[in-house]
Design goal:
By secondary structure, this protein is of the alpha+beta class. Helices cover 61% and strands 13% of the residues. A hairpin with a 3-residue loop joins β8 (316-322) and β9.
């Protein structure tokens, strides 16, 4: 929805520019032709009627009149030719501009349609995977006559995990859909970023312990505030921290660092496998296939949501990574 709005606005602006240029060309050619006509007519009138100092018109002989008549015909023919060339030039220029305009305008539309087709295909695949797992687990256990209570409990736990994964995918899709439609309202207030970090690290401590990863925080001594939606910043930091923990090596650590100068900067650094350089330009794309750029939630939308939240707050988000050494995601606040 957001792309369609910007695309329509872009079409209107470019059409206005192209039509404006075309009408300007028409006006200049017309003005030039009219001026040419007026000059020639003035010259013709001066030749046809000559006045002496007393104002009496000088009469011409027949030969002179024939000569003047021929000159008049030449002037008219030249005028017609110039008008024809001018109008033809305007038509050609307008056609070329229209062709170039259409070509340039439909390039982003084709790219958008291609991304939409890919998005639908990827979303279908992501939704089909947990559904297939749920169907398979259910069918196997329903057909088995020798299952114990523990077997059924295990199966139910697997079904629950897959249903949670499916729920996460649907929630992520709904979030991005609402974001694209600009239906998400942000509640901007002055928030304490140190307090936000404490809340997120506390909530993610279980995941870190499960993966044998230590969370280390480096923050200023005094409180650091920013104008933002606290819930969305928590969600953003949770996505980055979850991503860092899950792709860190067991026994390593994840560093959350908050700096105040020259601008407020919040970074999440891990010491995992890193991200391949060819994947870096694409890791924020929806459903982009890169094992190093997505969380284990299975939705493949975590970093896309993180980018949306950052952009909605005018926060710069970037990632630096080196294979075998880890990655650092940085958030730079504008205010």
């Amino acid at each position: 929805m957001k792309f369609k709005h910007s695309f329509i606005l872009d079409v209107k602006n470019k059409l206005a520019i192209r039509f404006g240029l075309s009408f300007l060309i028409i006006f200049l050619f017309s003005a030039s032709s009219i001026r040419f006509y007026m000059d020639r007519m003035e010259t013709y009138n001066q030749i046809l009627i000559m006045q002496d100092t007393e104002g009496d018109a000088e009469q011409f002989s027949d030969n002179q009149l024939i000569y003047l008549s021929k000159q008049m015909s030449l002037i008219k023919d030249r005028l017609y030719r110039e008008l024809a060339v001018a109008n033809l030039s305007v038509i050609v220029v307008f056609m070329v501009l229209s062709y170039l305009l259409a070509e340039r305008l439909f390039e982003p539309l084709e790219d958008s349609l291609e991304r939409e087709r890919k998005f639908v295909a990827d979303a279908s695949h992501e939704l089909r995977t947990p559904l297939a797992a749920i169907n398979s687990i259910s069918e196997i256990n329903l057909r088995s006559s020798n299952n114990t209570v523990d077997d059924y409990k295990t199966a139910l736990n697997q079904v629950f995990e897959e249903s949670q994964r499916l729920s996460n995918i649907i929630n992520d899709l709904l979030f991005l859909s609402r974001g694209d439609a600009q239906n998400i309202k942000l509640n901007f207030t002055q928030i304490d970023l140190i307090r936000v970090i404490e809340k997120v690290t506390k909530a993610m401590q279980f995941v870190a312990d499960k993966n044998f990863v230590k969370i280390e925080t480096i923050t200023p001594d005094k409180s650091t505030t920013a104008n933002a939606d606290e819930d969305k910043i928590k969600q953003l930091l949770t996505i980055l921290l979850d991503n860092a923990i899950r792709y860190s090596k067991g026994g390593s650590k994840v560093i959350i660092k908050l700096e105040e100068k020259p601008k407020i900067k919040l970074s999440v650094q891990d010491f995992g496998e890193g991200i391949d350089p060819q994947d870096l330009p694409h890791i924020f794309e929806r459903f982009y296939r890169s094992d190093k750029s997505r969380t284990d939630s299975g939705s493949g939308l975590g970093l896309s949501i993180a980018k949306w939240i950052a952009e909605a707050h005018s926060i710069g988000i970037e990632v630096k990574s080196e294979l075998g050494k880890g990655s650092t995601f940085s958030l730079t606040f504008s205010v």
